[in-house]
Design brief:
This protein is of the alpha+beta class. It has helices at residues 23-32, 47-61, 85-108, 114-127, 152-169, 183-192, and strands at residues 13-17, 66-71, 74-82, 139-145, 173-180, 196-203, 214-222. A seven-stranded mixed sheet has the order 1-2-3-4-5-7-6, sandwiched between helices. Helix 1 (23-32) crosses helix 2 and helix 2 packs antiparallel against helix 3 (85-108).
Length: 234
């Protein structure tokens, strides 16, 4: 069997295309998993801003590139992606201006505590310097799932949907950027499932909270590569 046709063995789990009704649930999951799989509130207190930055483009501008995973009818994970990188670029510039006004107002009106101000300061002064390079003219994706629903099979099923759809559209490659901590093991794991690690940079935004060196890692999948596919079993 082609590994890309594999589906998780859990009969109560399904993947399906995103629907408008899933928007709030995706935002909730984004915030519940935003700090290394834990709630973002430990390091950043503005949930509205956080999920606007990470999910709004995908659900509002490119919903056809979003998928969710359900367990017994409840959305427990999602994969949101971008296959129209030019639209994402221009929309992102507008969204950054919009968020800047929102942040300024909330900052000046005393709505942010110390940890949130620290997170924002890192984002403005160091975030861009600690972001590794990503391939140009490429699709990208963002994935998250709740605790108890993080088996590799579930992630793979969502990836299969995205890869198949993006191949139909002629997207040449897709990449993701995620926080990791074990550089050698990270590369082996991603390469095993057909994703190539192309760049890493050490990030400092969690250095006062997590007693490990953390890295932002770029992984890439060439969509014209039919020889190396996702191979992990559930």
């Amino acid at each position: 069997m082609n590994p890309l046709e594999h589906r998780t063995k859990d009969p109560d789990y399904i993947t399906r295309p995103y629907e408008k009704k899933d928007r709030d649930r995706i935002r909730q999951i984004c915030c519940e998993t935003g700090f290394l799989g834990e709630p973002i509130d430990a390091v950043f207190g503005d949930r509205d801003l956080f999920c606007d930055y990470l999910t709004r483009y995908y659900t509002d501008m490119e919903p056809e590139s979003c998928w969710v995973g359900e367990k017994n009818g409840e959305v427990v994970g999602y994969l949101i992606a971008c296959g129209r990188w030019r639209l994402n670029h221009w929309w992102g510039m507008w969204n950054n201006v919009r968020m800047a006004f929102k942040v300024s107002w909330r900052f000046l009106t005393g709505q942010y505590d110390a940890k949130t101000r620290k997170f924002l300061w890192w984002s403005m002064t160091r975030g861009w310097r600690e972001t590794p390079p990503a391939p140009a003219n490429s699709g990208h994706f963002h994935f998250n799932s709740l605790k108890g629903h993080r088996k590799m099979g579930i992630a793979r099923d969502l990836m299969v949907n995205m890869l198949g759809e993006f191949r139909k559209r002629g997207v040449p490659r897709v990449y993701g950027q995620m926080v990791t901590y074990d550089r050698r093991r990270t590369q082996r794991v991603f390469e095993y499932i057909g994703l190539k690690v192309t760049s890493q940079k050490r990030i400092t935004k969690y250095q006062d909270t997590v007693d490990k060196e953390m890295y932002l890692t770029t992984v890439v999948k060439e969509l014209n590569d039919t020889e190396q596919e996702m191979k992990v079993e559930s």
